[in-house]
Batch of 4 targets.
Target 1
Amino acid sequence: MNYLKKIFFSTGCLLASVSLITSCNNGYEEYDMVDPPRPISSDTQAFPGYFVKVDGTGSGTSWDDAMSGKQFFTMLANNSFKQGADIYLAAGIYKVGTSSSDFVSVSSGVNIHGGYDPASTGYVTAISYPSSFETIISGDINEDGIANQGDARLMEVTTTIPVSFYGITFKGGYIATATHSEASGANLSVRSGINVLKGGALNMNYCNIEGCISDIGANGDAGGAALLISGGVVKMNKCIIKDNQSNNRGGAIRMIISQAHDTKLYMNNSLLTHNGIKGDFGGTIQVSGSCDIFMNNCTLVDNYAKYGGAGINTSGKLVLMNSTLVNNLCTDGSNGHELRCEGKNNWFLMNNIILETAGKSNTGNPSLCLNGNDKIIVSGGYNLISFVGGTGTFARQGTDKIGITYNKVFGSASLADNDGYPKTLALPNGRYAAAPLNELQSYASKNLLIYNVGIDQRGFNRKSQKTCPGAYEYVGENDGKTALDGTLPDLNVNNGQW
């Protein structure tokens, strides 16, 4: 069945307003498009889109007439969905094909919404995310529950009109050889998860990418088991990236410079955990070349690498605000447990928590490493950092605090729901509240961060004064107290150089 070899589909709408972007329309005006037609039933009633159930038997005009997963893929392969159409997927497992060479290719515009009850009837499309019903796009062809030989990689996105996914889990993608993308040219290898190529645009809300393995050894072909961006733009909000693994250079995400297209990642209100590499550089995210990352309200915890940035390793631009990077571990010569900077004056950090447990980090084994004399980090202040090391310059503000451990800030706290999605690390008290909100807003605007810094990862409003660092805003009785008044150790300072 040739529908399984390449499944062509796309989406049109820019990310809906779930605080990923300050505002947006339905996406069509921006691209000089009209709102696409909707499917019409025999009684002339207009329907909101197409309906899919794993084992449906109909034509997709309602939940009662839902098409099957097989028909859904066939229509995708034949470009039968109108551009900009909405497609609603009931919970269940939708495998990308029947052999390890199959994958999904996204090349035109639809919006795919998951998380619907398999027992849905009628035309109901209202939904609240996160959903208790899981819609999975899976590469687990051999159905053994893990990504391994015999399984398939998941997806390529090459459409420049944004593809939007809501409430979808991408799971179990696998690749073991440097397969080269037909859609993108013979010199570009692809990875096990989602590949955004040739100026592709991908928007994701309340989506998971998990359990993908890129078992490729060569440095240029390795990394990015969950997500490869090579000449494309990805925007993620309320997403979870977990349990992905590569041999080296980006356990979860790999970004590669493209001469023809920008390579950018925008990430908001998201969790990255238990991703890693067996080898070196970027246990969670690895950037090769002048690619851009804009990150707000994100938690990176318990990711791993052998060496060189178990959290993020990048030579590109990094704007990092209100985020928590803790207990990421380089197991053999850290060179930056949490962050490794290879950029020249294009890293901008404000109001972050970048810490390790006691005894893990020191000046020779730092949580944040500047790899080279010409490397510069420009601080906006209010960062809590265990240690800074390397030979570059940290342009430090007086409100940055150095020499602090995870234990001192979080105590025994661990990842938990904490009344919001996805999971966060809760501050046990408000002692570290410090930054005025207007300073955060000014720094975000200056550095082109598109997100709302007035809320935390869970969606709670931040205080106008003494805003907490990291992704979690403390709202308890002690929120007016602060320990950023000289009571914390302030180590190894030498006119901003380390």
Target 2
Amino acid sequence: AVMGNVVPGWLLASAIDLQRLEPAIEQLAELDLVFPLEEKGTLRFKHGITREVVLDSLGRDQRQALHLEVAQIIEERFESTNRDTMLEALAYHYGETKEHQQAADYAEAAGDKAMAVSATDRARLQYHAALTALGKLGEDSVYDRWMGVSRKLAEACLYDAERSQTGIYERAIELSRTRDDRANLASGEYWLAYINYALGEAPAAKHHIDAALALAEELGDETQKTQSLASWGQIHGNACDYGAALPALEEAMSRQAPFKRKPRIAFAYAYSLACKGMILSDQGAFTEAFKCFDEADDLTRGAVHPTQGSIACMRSGAYLWQGRWEEAMD
């Protein structure tokens, strides 16, 4: 039970003779340390502190051995069935062992699963765990994999950046520059620019997006160039440099326009439209601004995606500037 706050009965039964434990479990319940859940044979610690005290009483090697045993039991139990339901548990248990490859594999898979349902907070947690495990294997030996997971993490951070994430992309830039890997260098510069943009750090964001755009042009990567142009416009718009921002946004959207109904492009295009609407609103061009918001809403209608929150936020700002309080609240 120390290995996880909730302990399925089948897991205990797989490892030991459950009947031999029943008197001890009853005593623990009487002492108010554990209690049963609705699912038969499933227990939970009454308080997380209890679990931590018991866990701290074990030596590191013993803890690692127990985590490995639990992970292997889970793998055996789900070998012939859908293991997706246990990805998070497997990532957690392997992450507490020296089996760093398995920890990275399961954490990345758990992150992918979370992203598939837009659970970006869970995805960030799992991708961070995968990068930590890969780092223990040595970034040099798993360079391509580390870079790939770092890009996945960046996409999970689009709507909730944290200052601690900048270190990951500074490291990505360092690693790619050492190898003269221009493609990954462009990606690292782009994501570091975007995270600084989300944090409101305009000078740093401008510096890195300039580097990303220059690298995209050098590489002749039109997709990366379009993405960098859009972010260049968004970053300069956020810094109120509207004369520079609007042409960049217009060029990026003209590149995306033929594909704007495709799901992935639709959200990027809609976000750029909303940013344009915000700029126009701040300049008092409300009629044109609301056309941008309306088209952005149309492109994302029927979906459940964080971009819709960004669009609604910018529309509400425009309503506030007009004194349309009720509509802004709605």
Target 3
Amino acid sequence: MASNSRRGFLRQLSMGAGILGAHSSFGADQPIQGFDDTKTTVQENAVWQPVSDRKIRFGIVGYGVCRFGAAFGYQDHPNVEVVAVSDLFPDRCAELAKACRCEKTYPSLEELVKDDSIEAVYVATDAPSHFKHCMEVLKHGKHVVCAVPSVFGSLEDADALYEMVKTTGLTYQLNETSAFKDDCFAMRKAYEGGNLGRLVYSEGEYYHYFGTPLDAYKEWRTGLPPQWYPTHSNAYHVCVTGESFTEVSCMGIPSVVDHLKPENNVFKNPFGTEVALFRTSGGGMSRMTVSWDTPGFGGEMGRVRGDKGSMTGTAFQGLSELDANALKKAPLPPGMSAGGHGGSHGYLTEEFVHAILENRKPLVDIAWGLNMTVAGVVAHQSALKDGETLKIPQYKSV
């Protein structure tokens, strides 16, 4: 059994290498890494059960190079009505409206949030704008779900966002895709069942090769510090255990890709790869890597080791037996796709919608979102100081 699991894992890696080798740069006819629809595990003989017949009125903002605004399937969820959309570019706004089967459009988020008919907003804008856009949504009394990361390199913004969510009592979710990938999901279920025990060590990796620049609003993706976009890897501890990272020593590796070098990016960032060693709030250790300039297999992946068992992918080895079906996801509503990033899109949408309907915090709430994001912000500070160990601010669920 262990041998078969090992072969399956290596097969996945080799497939990833082949795919990325063929698409090392991105053109109009080539999919962006991770955005293709993905098969996902589903519990056998399970049927989706609605919790309410209410429809939440949504606004969706952002339809840039990633087309995220329509990629998570809000328009297909039976408990959602997309009543308005927005993008700064009129042609993209029209495309988003068509994709979401919505007639009402606004020229900006700032205008959309004034619409009193909207209850919740999906912020799928550029990463540098996530903080200000989420703050604007919350100020207008609406629930918010946001693409990653929560903030963009600022500890002060993280504190302000946390206080806003705490003060308003509104629902905030970070759309961290790794949380609902098959492997991370299975690890979380195994951990919650006590099968892993105390997590002693974890690893997370996010490899996204930018051999050529990826077009993005104001070039924000070109040369950004890798650990400013850390949640895809950090999820392999935070979204497994709910723990946080308390301190970090991070080393950066100068990029050899011309457009990623500090003289060619707006961030003056020297690193194409950053490798962080974290101490966890549970007393364990975690190594998390983010890299933009290493070709080969790509994507998000992780491994976890506890004092009762360990997992690579969805394969468990330990002191007890596990029901494989229990490590699979519940079905989505009929007609709704699991989507890309390892079949996570639809499940993040389902989680946020249910959190609002059931008046509870979502899985990836403000605390998990900031604990993953801020750990990377401090990790980059450590890398700039040649690996100096730094303390990391902590956030608790509200």
Target 4
Amino acid sequence: FLIYLIFNNILFNSANLSTEKFIKILAYYRFIFFVFFISTLFRKLNKKKLNFFIKLNLFIILLVIIDIFIQLLLGKDIFGFPGGMCFGEYTHIDFKTLTKEHVLSNLCQRYAGPFNQEFIAGSFIIFVGTLFVSLNFLDETLSNSKKFLFIFSIIICFLATLITGDRNPFVSLVIALFIFFLIEKNYRKLFFKFFSVLFIIGLLTTLLNVHLYERYVSAGRDLLSIPEKFDIFKDKKVKFQSLNEQNHSKNVKKNSFLKNLKKKFYNTQWGAHYLVSIEMYKKKPLTGHGYQSYRIECHKYSYIESSMANVRCSSHPHNYIIQLLSETGLIGLIIYILFLTSIFYKLKNFKSNLNKPLAIFLGALLISFLFPFKPSGSIFSSVNNSFLFYLIGWVVYSFNLTDIRYLKK
């Protein structure tokens, strides 16, 4: 895939290729060694050293989670970092009258703890935190104590991620857990109990915290056009409305739910990104427009049918699939899919795997990271690739646990 990326930009998209971009493409080769290092080195460590490394990481993750709770309660974390995306207006809920109103406040929608204004705390907790939780508690012994500690730790990670306001990893965790409980029959009995607990905790936490209500409920309810009669709150009239919302409300006609949902989505910032990417793909379907070309090409598509066309430009289109299609074309997408398929090819020896629950959970976590029907970061971002390839390294490690038995023979 990386070889294709180099020749794609040299042969077909040289206009968008600079020396800096070329060096960045070459620098992605470090992630190959990242995977090799993790999957090979940790397989050769003795059990005592590996357990020490796992528990050290769990301790660091626990400190991050505690720091996020402190930031939520006190307004600043132990390093003095405040929350992010603070808003002057929020929705106050009066549970006695079941009404809400918009009032002024300095509350925030994002809490990143020690990461300050780099809002990656949710991704860190899910794609590193739950990874080490599974490494520590998931094994073939299936003891009740380890099952309980695994589920308890996952609930803590779930709650902390919810508080960060980071929606993408929150959705990823739900997807990963659903896949895990669906496949792992020994944990399947806990499915309904576990998700019932998560649902209750998530619902109460969201309704009792203003910033979470704004972050998770308000936008989703508006997007899904849920009728007022199904709303547990009787909305008061909003004192003001943005110009884009006013223009959009004039153009909305009675139509089917799916068509209205599609139209509403296209009139969001993410919808505008998707529409631009689709137009880019139509112009160069096979090879795309080149590495990190979205931020350049997006200026040419002011004609897209979206009320948010004025904010269509970004560093990336917020979805892995459409980014690959628009920047590397259909060829790039196919090669990338083959790369991911090659990872799961190791599962052909799954029956003889020494730790099936671990392999299933880490595989589910990887699938949830790359799940195509949710917003995502840039496929070429160093931060995203650090999470992705770190996770891939441990996935390969867990899939290769089969080989250890044969090596011992």
